[in-house]
Design a protein that fits this description.
By secondary structure, the chain is of the alpha/beta class. It is built from 8 helices and 21 strands. Among the domains are: 58 residues, OB fold (Dihydrolipoamide Acetyltransferase, E2P) (Beta Barrel); 92 residues, OB fold (Dihydrolipoamide Acetyltransferase, E2P). It is 24% helix and 30% strand. Helix 1 runs parallel beside helix 8. The longest helix is centred in the first third of the chain and has 20 residues. The mean pLDDT is 95. Belongs to the class I-like SAM-binding methyltransferase superfamily. RNA M5U methyltransferase family.
Length: 389
């Protein structure tokens, strides 16, 4: 019987959801290896957790590398936990994520719904590196750091290949202006201007297709891969084209709500972060988008849902946090006006869990699109369209 600290030699069968490698002992017991391994690799691993039915482990050494494995281009890759799949070409990473998603969905949906999955559409990132316009750094003694892989140790950074060039270049100087702690830094895709979350700087972010330029503070959440976000927003807006009253739930600063309003839709945008609501309201006023209303409300509370119900949307966008929104499926079932949902997810397994009451009531998944929003990592964004029967 294996225990913590044991070193094993295993062959990786496939990559599971959340980037873990799956291997098995001769006994058939499952071993899940932390992200950074590839299918068919022979690896030496150290057991980090011994549960009743499975083991967890971390790779110590790659004994027989996959033909897909290349040299990671980042000098900090051995220590930093930020880009565990940077050892494969970006297009290969996209293919691996599609395989991971196709493998995870039937199990997440279960026997009743797993046979009714639409064909997966895959949209790669325009850039494989240097795509992030927003990121977090840990500052110590005026220097930027990242979190170490599978630890709380800090790794000093001289560069980060995930960050766009203006932001990576400015990172050391931005860190000098900050005290010790964790901070958000950001750059404008329009001008290259950089800033930290401290201060009152507003950065321009344009949606050329919608004729909009937003002004966003670095501390307010927005999609860091702004180039691919254009495709995500277009796909979401197009999916709701036939509906005039739309609720944008967990709306942030208006990533979907403002483009929808520019198309003349009547939008109720609900978000639990007051700074994001303030930002969205300010941009709507500046852009003369009178058909969108932002509301600061906690969607975990009934009062927020009464407001949504009174609005009587025919369609809704949901973009909850990674942990999902437990109970939301049952709540949505109680809204008879709804006919279509555009569910944006950065953890689709949690999303399927939350959507099961809808599926059990006959709602169907009509469309699935994977957006490779985070190249170099196992993370992905999925747009799932659900239709009322």
């Amino acid at each position: 019987m294996n225990s913590m600290g044991d070193v094993l030699t295993l062959t990786i069968e496939k990559i599971l959801w959340r980037g873990r490698g799956l291997a098995r002992l001769d006994s058939g017991q499952v071993v899940m290896i932390e992200p950074g391994v590839l299918p068919e690799e022979v690896v030496s691993v150290r057991v980090t957790k011994a549960a009743k039915d499975f083991l967890q482990a971390e790779a110590v050494r790659i004994l027989t590398p996959s033909p897909l494995r290349g040299v990671h281009p980042c000098p900090h890759a051995a220590d930093c936990g930020g880009s565990r799949f940077g050892m494969v070409a970006p297009e290969t990473g996209t293919q691996l994520k599609a395989d991971i998603l196709r493998d995870a969905l039937p199990r997440a949906l279960g026997r009743d719904h797993g046979l009714h999955i639409p064909e997966l559409r895959v949209v790669p990132s325009p850039k494989g590196w240097r795509y992030r316009l927003r990121g977090q750094i840990h500052v110590r003694s005026g220097r930027p750091h990242a979190m170490g892989h599978a630890s709380n140790d800090l790794v000093p950074l001289t560069d980060c290949l995930l960050l766009c060039e203006p932001l990576a270049k400015a990172m050391p100087d931005l860190a000098k202006t900050l005290p010790d702690g964790r901070f958000t830094i950001a750059a404008s895709p329009d001008t290259g201007q950089t800033a930290t979350e401290q201060g009152d700087v507003l950065l321009p972010f344009s949606f050329p297709e919608f004729g909009l330029t937003l002004q966003l503070p670095p501390g307010t959440f927005f999609q860091a891969n702004w180039a691919l976000n254009q495709h995500l927003v277009r796909s979401t807006v197009d999916a709701l084209d036939g509906f005039e009253r739309i609720a944008d739930l967990f709306c942030g600063a208006g990533n979907f709500a403002l483009p929808l309003a520019s198309r003349g839709k009547t939008v109720l945008a609900v978000e639990g972060s007051l700074p994001a609501v303030t930002t969205g309201t300010r941009n709507a006023k500046r852009l003369n988008l009178d058909s969108v209303t932002f509301r600061d409300a906690n969607l975990a509370r009934p009062a927020a849902w009464k407001m949504v119900g009174d609005f009587a949307p025919r369609a809704a966008i949901l973009d909850p946090p990674r942990t999902g929104a437990k109970g939301i499926g049952s709540t949505l079932l109680g809204m008879p006006s709804l006919e279509r949902l555009a569910w944006v997810s950065c953890d689709v397994v949690n999303t399927i869990r939350d959507a099961k009451p809808l599926l059990a009531a006959g709602w169907r998944i009509s469309s699935l699109t994977l957006f490779d929003m985070f190249p170099g990592t196992w993370h992905m964004e999925v747009l799932m369209i659900l239709e009322r029967p």
